[in-house]
Amino acid sequence: MLCISRPARTKTLPALLFLALSLFNLSTSQAQEPTLSERALIQLNAYRRAAGLESVKLDPVLSRGCLAHAEYLVKNSRHPSTEGLGAHDENPQLPGFSEEGRKAARAANISFGHPPLAAIDCWVNSLFHRIPILDPTLKSVGFGHSQGGRWRYITVLDVERGRDRSKTDKIVCFPAEGMTNVPLALQPGETPDPIPKDPDKRAGYPITITFPLGAKVSAAAATLVLDNQEVDAWLSTPEQPVDARFQRNTLGLIAKEPLLPGRTYTVNASAQVDGNEWKQSWTFTTASR
């Protein structure tokens, strides 16, 4: 999957992320400063904990592949084969090719044009790239970044090869119940396009409900409500996905306009999951600006 966009100017981090980074900095104040990869892992795990998921670890082997692919993309930033979803492969005829990098390319989220830490927010603020980051079976990730070339920043996060493939019955809703400081808008520029019918691509922060990968999901529905009024939104489901290659077993609900600041929204969702009725309602509160 691929995320190409300019760095967002809106507030994107939940308050708990600032707390996580502050606590880590305090714990390491007597020792060495955290590396960029360590800070990225803290940021990633803050989102996972907000979703009720376990933290993941940084895998050095996977990270070497991510670094190799990031450097490959910098070296070949103007080559047509790296455009769009072509960034998820490597050409043996181009400089910087490696099998290690190619494996990472095929298993990673990739961000172009964002500093590495902003890339984490970019992915979580999108539809397709959020899904593997909040996978309950994900146990470890690879992380690599490089600077230069056409896009200035390339960040690669392997979110596939560190999955344990175990069966889970957990349903992941995000933003989660009671979350505050939720961003207002969808991250622009995601490839594939999560709202292909939207003419101006200005939309609200995505709400996702990810069902277990092997579950049979039908009749999935969801609404977003503000002040007892339903918000007009784009809805995609496991039965009617925007892009079946990347949506997995996820319902996506995206308001057709950015969310309003400092307001509490309610999500009402339902589905048939393996023949059983599932319903859930919860609230979250948006950032003040």
Task: Please explain how this structure is put together.
- It is a single chain.
- This protein folds into 2 domains: 36-158, Pathogenesis-related Protein p14a; 172-286, Immunoglobulin-like, CATH 2.60.40.
- A 6-stranded mixed beta sheet has the order 2-4-5-3-1-7.
- The two termini are 29 Å apart.
- It is built from 7 helices and 14 strands.
- It is of the alpha+beta class.
- A hairpin with a 2-residue loop joins strand 9 and strand 10 (229-230).
- The chain has helices at 15-27, 36-50, 60-75, 99-105, 116-124, 130-133, 244-247; strands at 2-4, 57-58, 108-112, 140-148, 152-158, 172-174, 190-191, 207-210, 217-226, 229-230, 233-236, 250-255, 264-273, 276-285.
**Sheet with most strands:** 6 strands, mixed
What is the H/E order? EHHEHHEHHEEEEEEEEHEEE
- With helices defined by DSSP (H or I, 4 residues minimum), what is the helix count? 7
Share of helix, binned: 10-25%
Q: In the CATH classification, which architecture of the largest domain applies?
A: 3-Layer(aba) Sandwich
